[in-house]
Amino acid sequence: MALYPQMEKEPRERIEEYIRYRWDHLESVRSSLEDHSIKFLFGTNAGGTAVLLAFIGSTAFIPPTSIISLAFFISGLLLTGFGIALGYNRIARLQKGWNDDAADLFAGKVEWEFMLQNDKKRLKESSPGKVFAWSAFACWILGTAFGFASLILFLCNRQT
Length: 160
Prior knowledge:
Number of helices: 4
Strand content: under 5%
Number of strands: 0
Helix content: over 70%
């Protein structure tokens, strides 16, 4: 395949259309990642934190598991923030790489196939944001489990 400036009009238009489509797709993925992660992980961990703080503030008997649960929920909130930041940076790097390659294509510095291969390489890079997201999810599960244990201990303490 020829360099972009040497291509016929029709292949150039198809390439330009695909470049715009790909950029829109990456932007959509970045936005979706941000929205869904914040809504679920932040919401569930913040909800757990709020419930536990209300519980701790309303009773004289505070089971030790309540403090552990609270620590997990707060950790989940922090991990969610870090995960969102890393996920956003990853998508931003993909977008920048794609835009840089598109500029090189239009300038005749690279071929279309090279541009696609570069994009595939960037997509295969690992994302530490996933570790943060899964860790925040684990914190939510553990916070919920310890919160449930606190409720059981509280109810058992009330009956004695």
